Amino acid sequence: MDESMVDIVLIILAALVAVAVLPEFDIELPQSQEITESGVVLRPLQISVTETGALYYLDQSNDEQPLTPPEFYEMVVATQLTQTVEVHADQLAPAIYLLEINRVIQKAGRNATFLVQAE
Hints:
The protein is of the alpha/beta class. It has helices at about 1-20, 70-80, 95-105, and strands at about 35, 40, 45-50, 55-60, 65, 85-90, 110-115. The radius of gyration is 21 Å and the shape is elongated.
């Protein structure tokens, strides 16, 4: 009985130590890249998703503009096939929204990059 209690305490202690020493990676987040295709500069379509599931996009002057789901679909379909859709999501954004956004992007035949930002 005492050995099993000691084992449990050691396992809990090992778990606490493992969590306390999680590594932090000093890496830079990927930057948006412009692609030149046939003389036309293609910026990625940048979409952000808030913790409430609200959609926004960055316009030409890098201001966030609200976006409805039908407008999002129209914007994705209107992009060039080689243009990437960047989705910046809050850490608390609803996962079901991110899955639906991914489904729409895949259905339109576009590539996507998802960046989930911690608070």
